[in-house]
Amino acid sequence: MSLQPIRGTRDILGDELRQMRFVAATALRIVKLYGFQEIETPVIEPLAVFARTLGDTSDIVSKQMYAFQDRGGDDVVLRPEGTAGVARAFINNGLAQNIPLKLFYSGPMFRYERPQKGRYRQFSQFGVELIGVDGVQADIEVIACAWQILRELKLDSRVKVQINTIGDQESRNSYRTALVDYLRGHVARLSEDSKTRLEKNPLRILDSKDEGDQEVIKGAPLFEKFLNETSQKFFSDLQNGLKSLGIPFVIDPMLVRGLDYYGHTVFEITTEELGAQSAVIAGGRYDGLIKSMGGTQTPGVGWACGTDRIAMMVKDLPSETSPIAIVPMGEVAEQKALKLAHELREKGLTVDLGYSGNMQKRMKRADKVGAKVALIIGDNEIAKNIVVVKDLAKGEQKEIPWDQIYESLVPKK
Ligand code: HAM
User: Fold this and answer.
1) Among 177, 265, 296, 356, whose CB has the most other CB atoms within 10 angstroms?
2) Which 8-state DSSP code applies to residue 95?
3) How many CB atoms lie within 10 A of CB 313?
4) Pocket test for ligand 1, best of 23, 36, 58, 81 (most atoms within 8 A of CB)
């Protein structure tokens, strides 16, 4: 049996990879407009970076982490997301002096999930974290940044921005009490997962996909009734800010997100085009995260986009530079062609060299690589110190002296 990649991982090539690179390059261009600076954290981290911070009962920590002991006996994890690693790096590198700090990152993440369309065990995220700003303008700015990326990719009409608040700690505590009281009365109808969460993380029950849970949730008390004044104001300021920037959004009162570090703002940008995997960008505010990891109290807000998922939605890729094909016939011509290709590339042109086969085969290759022009070199041409420059679209050809090749390909402005 031939070797296969691990389930949920894949070799990415061709158009799929070009789409992913296009998404990442577009995101990069836009986050730069907002002043985000790049950070690269390790793909492998100590278990403790994620275990408590994301929450023991979160899906990621309870069932999706690639966690193992390394050969030295240390508990390590292939990172399942980027935020906790950035928070660790923030503390370790003494970045508290540099707030407000805008960081972005991209790279592979790992989650042991059931693979399906748009859901992989190794996937790519591009994310931003705006650290050190208490005010809601940070939340508005990061959502605006995500929206601008989607607009730039021409996907804005195919996605929906969903926002919600899960309030500050005080609001969450009072809501939690009311929610648990209510759910206890319906415990028999809850799924096993939700029963476990009832004591530890009842809020998560709100976004359960289980049909029985959904029925129970319909009658649950609404979070908005338990928001204190600060939380209410924060959320209404967020909405006003988004409106003033012309960013369309809907409020989803059941949106609570799967990670424990959030408070106040949570949001997801979703699509109906990828089946069950609807979120293409997701994030929120995490004011308690850095302190919970041993740093000084520092607020933060950010998001991560699933690059693989957004790439699946991108249809029009920018066209690639079409190469100039060099088609040599004969050994001497091949040597000359190699040198010519080298010189033209040094001058910044894209060149494809026909390696072998008869004339027809080499011309076919020129076509296949999308060349518009072919430079044909045979014994005859060498004797006359010229090349034949053929316009592949029109079929026209002319003879050009060897020392004028570059000029003939790049007309002077
Ligand atoms: P998340 O919602 O877990 O948030 O993931 C963010 C995005 O990553 C998802 O919306 C989705 O597009 C993509 N994603 C997640 N899992 C997979 C998968 N198995 N296959 C393909 N794509 C996937 C976070 O990771 C937070 N760290 C976001 C954040 C940043 N919050 C604040 N700052």
Assistant:
1) 265
2) G
3) 19
4) 81
Q: How far apart are CA 92 and CA 86, in angstroms?
A: 10
pLDDT at 411 over 80: no
What CA–CA distance (Å, rounded) separates 139 from 126?
Answer: 17
Distance in angstroms (rounded) separating the CA atoms of residues 94 and 191: 44
390: phi then psi, degrees, rounded to nearest 5 = -110, 125
Q: How far is CA 259 from CA 49, 56, 282, 335, 370, in A?
A: 13, 10, 11, 61, 47
1 pLDDT above the threshold of 80: no
Residue nearest to atom 1 of ligand 1 (CA): 282
Would you say the CB of residue 304 lies under 6 angstroms from ligand 1? Answer: yes
Evaluate: CB of 145 within 6 angstroms of ligand 1.
no
Residues 75 and 45: their CA atoms lie apart, in Å, by: 9
Burial class (CB in 10 A: 0-12, 13-18, 19+), 407: exposed
pLDDT in tens, 255-303: 988 888 999 999 999 999 998 879 999 999 999 999 999 999 999 999 9
Predicted pLDDT of residue 413: 67
Q: What is the distance in A from the centroid of ligand 1 to the CA of 307? A: 9
Q: What pLDDT sits at residue 54?
A: 87
Of the candidates 158, 112, 162, the one whose C-alpha atom is nearest the C-alpha of residue 274 is: 158
Give 356's pLDDT tier (boundaries 50, 70, 90). Answer: confident
73's tokens: 């006996």
The CA 305 to ligand 1 mean position distance, Å, reads 6
Query: How do residues 166-213 score in pLDDT, each as one tens digit?
Result: 999 999 999 999 999 999 999 999 999 899 889 888 988 988 888 999
Q: Is 125 in the pocket of ligand 1 (CB under 6 A)?
A: yes
Q: How far is 142 from 149, CA to CA, in rounded Å? A: 11
Which residue matches tokens 């000359």? 336
Please give the mean pLDDT across all residues of the chain: 94
Alpha-carbon span 98 to 200, nearest angstrom = 36
- Reported as a single tens digit per residue, the pLDDT across 141-178 is 999 999 999 999 999 999 999 999 999 999 999 999 99
CA-closest residue to ligand 1 atom 8: 306
